[in-house]
Automatic annotation (TrEMBL), chains A, B:
<keyword id="KW-0378">Hydrolase</keyword>
<dbReference type="GO" id="GO:0005634">
    <property type="term" value="C:nucleus"/>
</dbReference>
<dbReference type="GO" id="GO:0004525">
    <property type="term" value="F:ribonuclease III activity"/>
</dbReference>
<feature type="domain" description="RNase III">
    <location>
        <begin position="30"/>
        <end position="172"/>
    </location>
</feature>
<dbReference type="Pfam" id="PF00636">
    <property type="entry name" value="Ribonuclease_3"/>
</dbReference>
<keyword id="KW-0540">Nuclease</keyword>
<keyword id="KW-0460">Magnesium</keyword>
<dbReference type="InterPro" id="IPR036389">
    <property type="entry name" value="RNase_III_sf"/>
</dbReference>
<protein>
    <submittedName>
        <fullName>Ribonuclease III family protein</fullName>
    </submittedName>
</protein>
<dbReference type="GO" id="GO:0030422">
    <property type="term" value="P:siRNA processing"/>
</dbReference>
<keyword id="KW-0694">RNA-binding</keyword>
<dbReference type="GO" id="GO:0003723">
    <property type="term" value="F:RNA binding"/>
</dbReference>
<keyword id="KW-0255">Endonuclease</keyword>
<dbReference type="InterPro" id="IPR000999">
    <property type="entry name" value="RNase_III_dom"/>
</dbReference>
<dbReference type="GO" id="GO:0005737">
    <property type="term" value="C:cytoplasm"/>
</dbReference>
<dbReference type="GO" id="GO:0046872">
    <property type="term" value="F:metal ion binding"/>
</dbReference>
<keyword id="KW-0479">Metal-binding</keyword>
């Protein structure tokens, strides 16, 4: 952790931006991430930025914060769009609650762990690595949402959102981000009747399977 | 107001949905709205729904609430996307504030008045028409944002968001909604230096020209 991605960007012969092409191992890390995301970035720098914490920033690469902000708004939009299609007769109140429980920090952090995204984070925070590993281990004890019992490193949720932001910036399509790539893949087992119950905050732990097929 | 749009939906010879085709005047109203929006709806029912208040709902047409929820999230996403492109080095805090002052109720309500959208609202609320007209007249006294002095009928902001939601649902493209149609048309006169000041809440009244060229 903390150094898996190079921030060296060089121009390839075909004018595409590639990162770490001078270091085969680092290029492999980019490819490995792209495989997880099932998406090949035109601009690899976006992918590197999405995994760069502010503590790691230098003059070659900005931190993920802006991409996280963008990804957060895309995620909110895509989820509400999806829920409206699933439950066209539902009123805004329950739909908004349903969205809230589906984009909370722990749920997104679990996505980062499940897909091993946390391994690619670049940071220089002495305690962060240990905190992340504690959360990863604790997830085994709490396979569903812990409902606030676990201490969740926010950075894990952040990199899920920044990755969504980077995907959108690279392909310029919310449809691609939602339908084909990272978010919303797989079947959603939710039914309207149960969704109404799940929208209640105290049922949050029952709903963690929303991202189950990611 | 309150009855300009018919909710009669009939199948045309080419199987497209048309509304009010039995009443030429009402068809003209749909066309007039489409002209304002510079967009021709494939499904006219979405446009009617976007202008239907809950007080007017019958079994033929739902209210605009769901489209408003969708439009709100699209507007938030599109604005943050635009600001990040304009100010790629700005940090999330100021960008979030900048977004907040650009999608507040009064600003959106002014958009509804400026483009005459309020004339197409369908409702059965006895006092609403008078409240809207009061706001329309007051806008002449306060050509810029009143900074909380004016009483703004929320429904005016709602129909701007529901229209954005209807546009998105009809064309399934945020790019179309943002780039070509309703939001973000024209030049934005904002400069980075001034934007920083405008992000401060007390400067909100100086910033109302963001939607000026809509």
């Amino acid at each position: 952790m903390g150094s898996q991605l190079s921030n060296t960007v060089v121009e390839g012969e075909d004018n595409t931006k590639t990162i770490g092409s001078t270091a085969p191992d680092q290029l492999l890390e980019i490819e490995s991430l792209e495989k997880i995301l099932n998406y090949k970035f035109k601009d690899k720098r976006l992918l590197v930025q999405a995994f760069t914490d502010a503590s790691y920033v230098d003059d070659k690469c900005d931190s993920y914060e802006i991409l996280e902000l963008l990804g957060d708004s895309i995620l909110n939009m895509s989820i509400i769009d999806e829920f409206i299609k699933l439950y066209p007769k539902e009123s805004p109140g329950p739909l908004t609650k349903l969205r809230a429980v589906n984009v909370d920090t722990e749920k997104l952090a679990r996505v980062a762990v499940k897909h091993q995204l946390y391994r690619y984070l670049r940071h220089k925070k002495p305690l962060l690595e240990e905190q992340i590993l504690e959360f990863v281990e604790a997830m085994e004890k709490y396979p569903l949402h812990s409902n606030g019992l676990l201490k969740v490193p926010k950075v894990l949720a952040d990199i899920v959102e920044s990755t969504i932001g980077a995907l959108f910036r690279d392909c310029n399509s919310t449809e691609t981000v939602w339908e084909d790539k990272f978010v919303g893949c797989g079947q959603h087992p939710v039914k309207k009747e149960t969704a109404r119950n799940f929208a209640a905050k105290n049922a949050i732990d029952n709903f963690s399977k929303f991202f189950g097929d990611l």
